[in-house]
C-alpha cells in the first residue's frame, strides 16, 4: 500500500506508450522508463543508456519498462492540498529530524504494474512479473526533497533487456544534475544509490528514513550542489509498530473529497499518444549549506563537477489528482544494514588513476601519489604542461547600451606551462562590439592562472584544492567606459595581487583593479586615463572532510600576477590573455622566499619538468612523471617500447607524451579488472578479420575465412608448418644461388650476392669486380685528390652515398651546414638549398633493391565498404578504415604491394573507385581498381619526378606536379591527351588539389627562396599567388569540397593552416608538428603523414587538436595520403555531361569550361574553344 494514494477517477493523467513528448509551458517530464526528467530528454537518449544522461533526472527505477498492451500504467499529478503536503513533510521529518520543512506543493508519480521489456528473446523467468513504485517531489520556498516508495512485493524484477546494450542490465536508482559548467562544460554531480540485484532487492525491505520501503533525499538546496543528500535514519525493529492498519489508513487514504482539484491545461493522452508528459516543478533558491551525515542505502557512486541550482522559482500550475488502485499490503520484513559508510572498496573509481584511496572513520579520501598534483579525484603530473578546453557563458553590458551581449557555449582554450605558472587563454568567436571592451578584464584569464599557479612552499593553487570540480561565480562592478571609436587591439596591465580566503567548501576573493588606457599621441603628448573596477568571485567545491590529519590550508593566500598581456584579434574574433601566476603568503612575509627562481619563473627548467625550490634562491629541476632527463632537458619515456607487455594480452599500447594508453583489439573490451576480454556475440564471427584466430603472425601465415565461424590457417611461401606455428624454410640449404655467390637466408625468403672477384645478381656470377657507381667514383676522386691518408680539407664537399652506392637524396656540406636535394645523378635540384639547421624534404628517386625469392602478389586486395584512408609507404599502399572520423587501427591492411616503386602522391576517383599514384623511381603514373585486380601504368614517358597528383572526378581528368621538370600537367584518366599547364615560375612544385565544382586548381611550391601556394582555373588561366607570407616548406595540400576550405601542412613552420579561398584571413589550426608531408580531409578532421613519426596523425579542426595517431607495422617514411570516399560529393561542373561538348580535354572554370587540345597533336580533329 502506498502512503500517497488516491482513487481512479476524474482529473487523472495516465500514459501507456513510450514515445517522448514535451508538453507546452512546463518544466518536468515524466517518462514510462521510471524517471522524472528536469527537461525533455534528447531523442538519442529516449531509451536508458549509460548513466548519467545529459539532462537532469530523478530516477526511482530507471530501466526499459513495458507499458504497452495494458501491461502497466503511469499516473502523475501536482498536489497543493494540505493533507498531501503535510504527509510529505512527515516523511521528510522522519528522514531529517533536525530540519523544519513545510512544502507548498508535491508532485506525485506512480508507476503501476509495469512489466520488464524483454527484447526479441523473452525470458520465461520474467513472464508475468510486475513492478509498482512511487516518487514524490516535495518543494518549499527554500528546499526540495524526493521521496521514493516501494511497497512490499512491489518490485518483482530487478533487470530488463536494454535496447541499447542488447542484453539484460540491472535497474538504476539515481539522481543526476545533467550537463553543467561555466568554463568547463561537463557532467554535473550525480549519485547512483542502487544498480545491482542486491541493492535493488533491498529497496522494498529497507529504508533510509526509518520506515520500510520509504527513502528520502534532499535534492534542492546549496547543500546539494555537489550531489543529493540522503537521509540516514536506520530501520529498527520497532519502527513499524506505530503504523498498524487503522493508523496507517487514517493517515494515507486521500479521497477526492479531501483534495481540491483542477485539471492541467493540456489534454489527456489517448492510447497511442506519446508517453512523456510534463508538469511544473520548483527549483529552490539558494540558502546557507547545512551539514548532512552521509548514509545512502548503499555506497553511492558520486562524481562532482560544476553545478549550482538556479535561484529563481518557476511558476506553478494548478494541482491535479490522479487516483491509483490500492495495492494490497503484505507482511513487513525488517532487515537493513546500518553501516552506510562509503569505503575505498566501493569507490576506488572515484579517485584518479594517479591517486591512492584511504579509508577513514567516516568515509574515504583520495590523494595524488608522489610526482602528481591535484585534489585526488583529478591528478596531473607535476611540471607537465596542461591544456584546458571548455565553454564560456554569460552576459555583458558594453558602453551605454542597455542590451546585453549574451555568450552561449563560447569556446575557451588554455595552455598552461605549470612550472612557470604561465597561462595562455584564448576565447573564440568574440564579436568586435565587445572584444575590445574585454581587454581590461585580465582576471577572466586569471581564473585559469589561479588554477595552475606556481605553488610556494606550504601553499596550494586552485587545481590542488578543487581539481576540475568547482563552480565559480563572478561579479564585476565597472564604470561605464566609452572610447568614442578609438579601439585598442592589445594592452598591458600592471602586475597585481589578489587575496583568496578559504573556508570549508568555499573560497572567496575580492579586489579593486586599475588599468591605464593610452590614447593616440596628439601634439607630441599621449594622454592616458586610469580606470578602476571591482572584482569579486566565489568558488564552491567539494572537499574531503574525512581525513582530519591532512594539513589545513592557510586561511588567506595571495595570488601574485605579473607579465599580464591581453590581445584582441579582430580578423579571427579571438580574445587572448597571457599571465604569470604564483600562489603564496601575503606579501609581508619573507621577501627572500618570493625571489626563488621557482616562484618568479627564471629557473630554466624544461617545460616537462617541475621546479623544486630550496633555501634562498637555490632550486632543482626534476623531470615530470613519464619523462626522463636532467630537468633542464626532459624527453618522453616510451612505456610501450620499454614495457611491451604493460597492456596485457589482446591490447594495443599507444604512447603519449608523459603517459601511455591501452586499447583492446577488435573483438575485445575492458573488463572490470582492466584486462581485455572477448566480446560475447551470438552472430557468426569472421575470426580472420577480427583478429581472434590462432594462426601464426601475418608475417608468417595467413588466416582463410571459410564462412560461418570457421577458418583455416596456412603458412606463407617460404615458411612451413600447420599455419598455427610456421617455421622459416632455409632456402640456402641447399643453396639456390650461383656456386660463386653467397646465399643469405631471410625470414620467408633469401638473397644471393656474388663473392669478391665476381659480379652479377647472385644467381649468375662472372669473374670481375662489381662496377662502382657514379657516387662512389666521385667520392674516390675527391678523397684521392685530397690525399687518402689525410682528412678532407675545410671547405671541400664530399658527396654521401648510401649502402648501395646511390647518392643520398639529401646532401649537406660538412663545413657550411647547408643542405640541398640531388637527383639520381647527384645534380643539385634548384631551389632546395636550406640554411644550416634545416633539412629539405628530399625524395629518393631510387627504389630499394628487390630481394630475389618468393614474390609478393601485386594484385589489389578488394576494399571493404565504407570510407578509408589510403597512404603510401615505399613499395606499397595501405588502407586504414574510418568509422565516423575514428581510425580503425586494428583493421589496417595492405592494399597494394609494389616493391619496385617509390610511390609519392595518391588520388582517389570516387566514381570508378580507382586509386592513382605517382612513382618517382621509374618514373611513372599508375592506377588500380579498389574492386581488385592488377595495377596498370598509364604514363611512362617524359616524366622527371612526378610527386603531387589530383583528380577532377567531374571532368574526368588528372593533374600532377613534376618537381624535376618544374611543371604542372593535365591528362585524361587513362593517361592520354597530356597537356602542360605551367612550366614557368615553378620551383619544386609538390602538393596539388582540385575544387571540381568551382573549377579551381591549387598547388604548393616549396622553393626555399620563395615558398608559396598558388591557384588558377583548371584550364590554366587566372593564375595568382594565394599565400606567400610566413611559409617554410609547404608540402601537403587538401581541399574539402563540403566546407570549401583549403588546408596545408608545412614542414618548415611545423604548422597546419587553413583558409577559405577568396577570404583574406587564414587560420593556424595546429603548431608543433614534427615533419608533415601530405594531408587529406574528411568531415571536420584532417589526416596527415609525418616523416619523423612514421605515422598518420588525425587533427580535429573544430578544437584545433591532434586526436589520434596510427603507427604502421612497417616503420618507414610515409608519403601521400588520400581519402577513399564511399560516395562522391554532390555537385557538377560544365564538363560533367558529354565532356562539356569538347572534342578532347574539357577543363572546368568557375561557371564555365574551356576546350583544350593535347600537346603535340597534329591534325584538325581537335577544336579549342571557351
Can you walk me through this structure?
Keywords: Basement membrane, Calcium, Cell adhesion, Disulfide bond, EGF-like domain, Extracellular matrix, Glycoprotein, Repeat, Secreted, Signal, Sulfation. Interacts with FBLN1. Interacts with LGALS3BP. Interacts with PLXDC1. Interacts with SVEP1. It holds the Pfam family Thyroglobulin_1. The protein is mainly beta and about 1150 residues long. It is about 5% helix and about 35% strand. It has twelve helices and 79 strands. Strands 24, 25, 26, 27, 28, 29, 30, 31, 32, 33 and 34 form an eleven-stranded mixed sheet that branches. Strands 1, 5, 6, 7, 8, 9, 16 and 17 form an eight-stranded antiparallel sheet that branches. Strands 18-2-3-4-12-15-19 form a seven-stranded antiparallel sheet. A hairpin with a 4-residue loop joins β49 (about 760) and β50 (about 765). The longest helix has 14 residues, at about 80-95. The chain is globular, with a radius of gyration of 36 Å.
Amino acid at each position: 500500500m502506498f502512503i500517497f494514494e488516491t482513487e481512479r477517477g476524474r482529473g487523472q493523467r495516465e500514459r501507456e506508450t513510450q514515445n517522448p513528448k514535451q508538453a507546452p509551458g512546463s518544466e518536468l517530464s515524466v517518462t514510462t522508463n521510471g524517471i522524472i526528467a528536469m527537461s525533455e530528454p534528447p531523442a538519442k537518449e529516449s531509451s536508458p543508456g549509460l548513466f548519467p544522461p545529459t539532462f537532469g533526472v530523478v530516477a526511482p527505477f530507471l530501466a526499459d519498462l513495458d507499458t504497452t498492451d495494458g501491461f502497466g500504467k503511469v499516473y502523475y499529478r501536482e498536489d497543493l492540498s494540505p493533507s498531501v503536503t503535510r504527509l510529505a513533510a512527515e516523511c521528510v521529518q522522519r528522514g531529517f529530524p533536525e530540519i523544519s520543512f513545510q512544502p507548498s506543493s508535491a508532485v506525485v508519480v506512480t508507476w503501476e504494474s509495469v512489466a520488464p521489456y524483454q527484447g526479441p528473446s523473452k525470458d520465461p523467468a520474467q513472464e508475468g512479473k510486475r513492478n509498482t513504485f512511487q516518487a514524490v517531489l516535495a518543494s518549499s520556498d527554500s528546499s526540495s526533497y524526493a521521496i521514493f516508495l516501494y511497497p512490499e512485493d512491489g518490485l518483482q524484477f530487478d533487470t530488463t533487456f536494454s535496447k541499447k546494450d542488447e542484453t539484460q542490465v540491472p535497474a538504476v536508482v539515481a539522481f543526476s544534475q545533467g550537463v553543467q559548467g561555466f568554463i568547463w562544460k561537463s557532467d554535473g554531480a550525480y549519485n547512483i544509490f542502487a544498480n545491482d540485484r542486491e541493492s535493488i532487492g533491498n529497496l522494498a525491505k529497507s529504508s533510509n528514513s526509518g520506515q520500510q520501503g520509504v527513502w528520502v533525499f534532499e535534492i534542492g538546496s546549496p547543500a546539494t550542489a555537489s550531489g543529493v543528500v540522503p537521509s540516514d535514519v536506520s530501520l529498527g525493529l520497532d519502527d513499524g509498530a506505530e503504523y498498524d492498519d487503522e493508523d496507517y489508513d487514517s493517515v494515507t487514504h486521500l479521497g477526492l473529497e479531501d483534495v481540491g482539484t483542477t485539471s492541467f491545461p493540456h489534454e489527456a493522452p489517448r492510447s497511442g499518444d506519446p508517453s512523456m508528459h510534463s508538469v511544473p516543478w520548483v527549483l529552490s533558491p539558494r540558502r546557507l549549506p547545512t551539514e548532512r551525515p552521509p548514509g545512502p542505502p548503499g555506497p553511492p557512486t558520486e562524481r562532482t563537477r560544476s553545478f549550482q541550482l538556479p535561484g529563481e522559482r518557476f511558476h506553478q500550475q494548478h494541482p491535479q489528482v490522479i487516483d491509483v488502485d490500492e495495492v494490497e499490503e503484505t507482511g513487513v520484513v525488517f532487515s537493513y544494514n546500518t553501516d552506510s559508510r562509503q569505503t575505498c572498496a566501493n569507490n576506488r573509481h572515484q579517485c584518479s588513476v594517479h591517486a591512492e584511496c584511504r579509508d577513514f572513520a567516516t568515509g574515504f579520501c583520495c590523494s595524488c601519489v608522489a610526482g602528481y598534483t591535484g585534489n585526488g579525484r583529478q591528478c596531473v603530473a607535476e611540471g607537465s604542461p596542461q591544456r584546458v578546453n571548455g565553454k564560456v557563458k554569460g552576459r555583458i553590458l558594453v558602453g551605454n547600451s542597455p542590451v546585453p551581449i549574451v555568450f552561449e557555449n563560447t569556446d575557451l582554450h588554455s595552455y598552461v606551462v605549470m612550472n612557470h605558472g604561465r597561462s595562455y587563454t584564448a576565447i573564440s568567436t568574440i564579436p568586435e562590439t565587445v572584444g575590445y571592451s574585454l581587454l581590461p578584464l585580465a582576471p577572466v584569464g586569471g581564473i585559469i592562472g589561479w588554477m595552475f599557479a606556481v605553488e610556494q612552499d606550504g601553499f596550494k593553487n586552485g587545481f590542488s584544492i578543487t581539481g576540475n570540480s568547482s563552480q565559480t561565480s563572478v561579479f564585476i562592478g565597472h564604470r561605464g567606459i566609452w572610447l568614442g571609436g578609438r579601439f585598442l587591439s592589445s594592452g598591458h596591465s600592471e602586475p597585481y595581487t589578489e587575496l583568496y580566503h578559504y573556508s570549508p567548501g568555499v573560497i572567496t576573493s575580492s579586489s579593486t583593479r586599475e588599468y591605464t588606457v593610452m590614447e593616440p599621441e596628439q601634439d607630441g603628448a599621449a594622454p592616458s586615463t586610469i580606470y578602476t573596477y571591482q572584482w569579486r568571485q566565489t568558488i564552491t567545491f567539494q572537499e574531503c572532510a574525512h581525513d582530519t590529519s591532512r594539513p589545513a590550508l592557510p586561511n588567506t593566500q595571495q595570488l601574485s600576477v605579473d607579465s599580464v598581456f591581453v590581445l584582441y584579434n579582430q580578423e579571427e574574433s579571438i580574445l587572448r590573455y597571457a599571465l604569470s601566476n604564483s600562489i603564496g603568503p601575503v606579501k609581508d612575509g619573507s621577501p627572500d622566499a618570493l625571489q626563488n627562481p621557482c616562484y618568479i619563473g627564471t629557473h630554466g627548467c624544461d617545460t616537462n619538468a617541475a621546479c623544486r625550490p630550496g633555501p634562498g634562491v637555490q632550486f632543482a629541476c626534476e623531470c615530470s612523471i613519464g619523462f626522463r632527463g636532467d630537468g633542464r632537458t626532459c624527453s618522453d619515456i616510451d612505456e610501450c617500447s620499454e614495457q611491451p607487455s604493460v597492456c596485457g594480452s589482446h591490447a594495443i599500447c599507444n604512447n603519449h607524451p608523459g603517459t601511455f594508453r591501452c586499447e583492446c583489439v577488435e573483438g575485445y573490451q575492458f573488463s572490470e579488472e582492466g584486462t581485455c576480454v572477448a566480446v560475447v556475440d551470438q552472430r557468426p564471427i569472421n575470426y580472420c578479420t577480427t583478429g581472434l584466430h590462432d594462426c601464426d603472425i601475418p608475417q608468417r601465415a595467413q588466416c582463410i575465412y571459410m564462412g560461418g565461424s570457421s577458418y583455416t590457417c596456412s603458412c606463407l611461401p617460404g615458411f612451413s608448418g600447420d599455419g598455427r606455428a610456421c617455421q622459416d624454410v632455409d632456402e640456402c640449404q641447399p643453396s639456390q644461388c650461383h656456386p660463386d655467390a653467397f646465399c643469405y637466408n631471410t625470414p620467408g625468403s633469401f638473397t644471393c650476392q656474388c663473392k669478391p672477384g665476381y659480379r652479377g645478381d647472385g644467381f649468375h656470377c662472372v669473374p670481375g669486380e662489381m662496377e662502382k657507381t657514379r657516387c662512389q667514383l666521385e667520392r674516390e676522386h675527391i678523397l684521392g685528390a685530397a690525399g687518402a691518408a689525410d682528412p678532407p680539407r675545410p671547405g671541400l664537399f664530399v658527396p654521401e652515398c648510401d649502402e648501395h652506392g646511390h647518392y643520398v637524396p639529401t646532401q649537406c656540406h660538412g663545413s657550411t651546414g647547408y643542405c640541398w636535394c640531388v637527383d639520381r645523378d647527384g645534380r643539385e635540384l634548384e631551389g632546395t638549398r636550406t640554411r644550416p639547421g634545416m633539412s629539405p624534404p628530399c625524395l629518393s628517386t631510387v627504389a630499394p633493391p628487390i630481394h630475389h625469392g618468393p614474390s609478393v602478389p601485386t594484385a589489389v586486395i578488394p576494399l571493404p565498404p565504407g570510407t578509408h584512408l589510403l597512404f603510401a609507404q615505399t613499395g606499397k599502399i595501405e588502407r586504414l578504415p574510418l568509422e565516423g572520423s575514428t581510425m580503425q587501427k586494428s583493421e589496417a591492411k595492405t592494399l597494394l604491394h609494389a616493391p619496385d616503386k617509390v610511390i609519392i602522391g595518391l588520388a582517389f576517383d570516387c566514381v570508378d573507385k580507382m586509386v592513382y599514384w605517382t612513382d618517382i623511381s621509374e618514373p611513372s603514373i599508375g592506377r588500380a581498381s579498389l574492386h581488385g585486380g592488377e595495377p596498370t601504368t598509364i604514363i611512362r614517358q617524359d616524366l622527371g619526378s612526378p610527386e603531387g597528383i589530383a583528380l577532377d572526378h567531374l571532368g574526368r581528368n588528372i593533374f600532377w606536379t613534376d618537381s624535376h621538370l618544374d611543371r604542372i600537367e593535365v591528362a585524361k584518366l587513362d593517361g592520354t591527351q597530356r597537356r602542360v599547364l605551367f612550366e614557368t615560375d615553378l620551383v619544386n612544385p609538390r602538393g596539388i588539389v582540385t575544387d571540381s565544382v568551382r573549377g579551381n586548381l591549387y598547388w604548393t611550391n616549396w622553393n626555399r627562396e620563395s615558398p608559396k601556394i598558388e591557384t588558377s582555373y583548371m584550364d590554366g588561366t587566372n593564375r595568382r599567388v594565394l599565400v606567400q607570407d610566413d611559409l617554410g616548406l609547404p608540402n601537403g595540400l587538401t581541399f574539402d569540397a563540403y566546407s570549401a576550405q583549403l588546408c596545408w601542412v608545412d614542414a618548415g613552420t611545423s604548422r597546419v593552416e587553413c583558409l577559405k579561398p577568396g577570404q583574406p584571413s587564414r587560420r593556424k589550426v595546429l603548431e608543433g608538428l614534427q615533419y608533415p608531408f601530405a594531408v587529406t580531409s574528411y568531415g571536420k578532421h584532417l589526416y596527415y603523414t609525418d616523416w619523423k613519426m612514421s605515422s598518420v596523425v588525425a587533427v580535429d579542426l573544430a578544437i584545433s587538436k591532434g586526436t589520434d595517431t596510427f603507427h604502421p607495422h612497417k616503420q618507414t617514411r610515409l608519403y601521400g595520403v588520400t581519402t577513399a570516399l564511399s560516395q562522391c560529393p554532390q555537385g557538377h561542373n560544365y564538363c560533367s555531361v558529354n565532356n562539356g561538348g569538347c572534342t578532347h580535354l574539357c577543363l572546368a572554370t568557375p561557371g564555365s569550361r574551356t576546350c583544350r587540345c593535347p600537346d603535340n597533336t597534329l591534325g584538325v580533329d581537335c577544336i579549342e574553344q571557351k
